[in-house]
Amino acid sequence: MTATATNPASQRPTYLNHAYTLWSWLSTTDHKRIGMLYLGTLTLMFFIGGLAATLIRLELMTPVGDVLSADGYNKVFTIHGVIMVWFFLVPSIPNTLGNFILPLMIGARDLAFPRLNLASWYIFVAASIMALYFLLAGGVDTGWTFYTPYSSMFSNSNVTGVIAAVFIVGFSSIATGVNFIVTIHKMRAPGMTWFRMPILCWSLYATSLVIVLATPVLAISLLLVALERVAGVGIFDPALGGDPLLFQHLFWFYSHPAVYIMILPGMGVTTEIIACFARRRIFGYRFIAFSSMAIALIGFGVWGHHMFVAGQSAVAAIVFSLMSFLIAVPSAIKVYTWTATLYKGDIRMAAPLVYALSFIVLFVIGGITGLILASLALDVHVTDTYFVISHFHFIMVGASVSAYMGGLHFWWPKMTGRMYAERPALLAALFIGIGFVLTFLPQFWAGYLGMPRRYHEYPDEFQVLNVMSSAGAGILGLGYAMPLFYLTWSLRHGEPAGDNPWQATGLEWSVPSPPPKHNFVEIPVVEHEAYSYRPFGAQGSERVESDEEIQR
Fold first, then answer.
1. Does the pTM of the predicted model rise above 0.70?
2. Percentage of the residues of the chain whose pLDDT score is greater than 70
3. What is residue 496's three-state secondary structure?
4. Cβ neighbours of 371 (radius 10 Å)
5. Domain spans, the chain
6. Which of 216, 241, 78, 219 is nearest to 146 (CA)?
7. From start to end of 365-426, where are the E strands?
8. Rounded to whole angstroms, how far apart are CA atoms 280 and 198?
9. Are 123 and 172 in contact (CB under 8 A)?
10. SS3 of the chain: helix, strand, coil, percent, to 5
11. pLDDT bracket for residue 547 (50, 70, 90)
């Protein structure tokens, strides 16, 4: 992909090079600075959620409840779940990397609705403050799923307040999703056809469709819980003609597609990193692009596999089981295309690629165990055990956060104009990958043996596995903390990055680092596909291989 015009060196001063006032940040409509605002806010929420996870792992090191009471444990894992799911994992890549990179990737000067973009951040901050207040001032004991009838009829905790916060943050997600959809449709540079877009743009587009279509369902279901608690309307209370299983159907109709809100952007980030560090055109570009759309579509038809033991009909259970197996097909296509792209590539083992490879490994483990949960008989055996906990952490946390960290390291030089220290970055990537496996792999075994989730006390025979998990969590926590220090250090002391330190293709690498306010002096004209790579250090142009040539 080439452009007819780039920014001259004189245009290099940008948001990080000027002494901007606090108000200039709080009133900005520059998509790049809003992405950085999200980065700071989400980092704070991530470590708050991580602190709650630390308390959980400390409690589970011994079979008896000697750190937290039963009620305290319930409130701590609710804090962990609510913060990590709705205030970090769902918005992590779209609202940070997506905000910063998407307009640059498609040759636009900003998102379609800059003021709406800023408003989405303010909504997110307001909802975050509200959630933290109610979670810490009295707490919530329902878990992050707010299952009825306990949440709507029996819990005396701050359920309504936290539900209101999650309801509000949904507007932030919807605003971002609408912004991305319109931007991709209407603001692509001349010559950038749909099949010249980078794969990350396809992933963000598919993710935005899921956000816009699914988030209102979550909002309605949570609003109904609050309405029943406040007004006593019989929606989920059987004594008033309600049905508690209705909430599960509504909740999982959103929450299983929400898994793909978390993972689809990570798939796009992984594709960009692998193409760059393997120096190869993406194998099967159209297959991997359409697989993102297929995942978004099929994802709306698998929610019932969360309810195999909830009393649904045998026919419905079989249909949901088959749909859950079907969604593995486009996911497998992606893994195949990544592997084929790496095959015989001119590979440079930098930190972003280590994170991308970690994403693939963790995603494959999570995907295979997901097939186990899609099997009716096996799911009945491991439902509500630590097997399920481990499975969704491999997907939602292990894979998703690895991709987020990989993308952050990949585009950090573009975002800041500075390079980070490579050795600490590689060490942090290894700590995260190894620590995550040590933390959650033993939980598969504990769950298969019957250790139930949501209990702060457990039989003695599970202690060894829990101690292993807690030890792995220590390594994992160190790996997550390290980038906070060396990336911050790089802002002042890092080597100048230059415009394109990775020799990557794409319009974002044709502008200065960091990019100027309006990105491009002139809107570029795209003449080639997204991934016309040549070996590291090579000069001049190189003919791009076709899919058929790569396959041969």
1. yes
2. 93
3. strand
4. 12
5. 27-534
6. 78
7. none
8. 14
9. yes
10. 70, 0, 30
11. very low
pLDDT at 114 over 90: yes
| Whole-angstrom Cα Rg for the chain | 23
What average pLDDT does the segment 64-77 reach? 92
Asked if residues 233 and 227 have their Cβ atoms less than 8 Å apart, the reply is yes
Say whether pLDDT at 346 is over 90.
no
249: which residues sit within 8 A by CB, 6+ positions away?
303, 304, 307
Query: Which tokens hold the place of 15?
Result: 């948001």
Question: With respect to CATH, is domain 27-534 assigned 3.30.470.20?
Answer: no
| DSSP characters over 112-161 | S-HHHHHHHHHHHHHHHHHHHHHHHTT---STTTT-TTIIIII--SSHHH
CB 505 within 8 A of CB 530: yes
Lowest mean pLDDT among 82-86, 284-288, 490-494, 542-546: 542-546
Instruction: Say what the pLDDT of residue 9 is.
Output: 39
Mean pLDDT over 496-525 rounds to: 91
Q: Rounded CA gap, 257 and 263, in Å? A: 10
Token pair belonging to 499: 């415009």
What is the per-residue pLDDT for 307?
A: 92
- Those residues whose C-beta lies under 8 Å from the C-beta of residue 423, and which sit 6 or more positions away, are none
Please tell me the distance from the alpha carbon of residue 446 to that of residue 464, in angstroms, as a whole number.
10
Torsion of CA 307, 308, 310, 314, to 10 degrees: 120
Q: Which of 308, 333, 272, 300 is nearest to 211 (CA)?
A: 300
Asked if residue 2 has pLDDT above 60, the reply is no
Cα-Cα-Cα-Cα torsion 179, 185, 186, 192, nearest 10 degrees, comes to 120
- Alpha-carbon span 165 to 459, nearest angstrom: 36
By C-alpha distance, which of 239, 197, 71, 228 is closest to 508?
197
> What is the C-alpha separation between 455 and 444, in angstroms, rounded?
16
430-441 per-position pLDDT tens digit: 999 999 999 999
Binned at pLDDT 50, 70 and 90, residue 542 comes out as: very low
Report the pLDDT averaged over residues 217-244: 90
Count of CB atoms situated within 10 Å of the CB of 225? 26
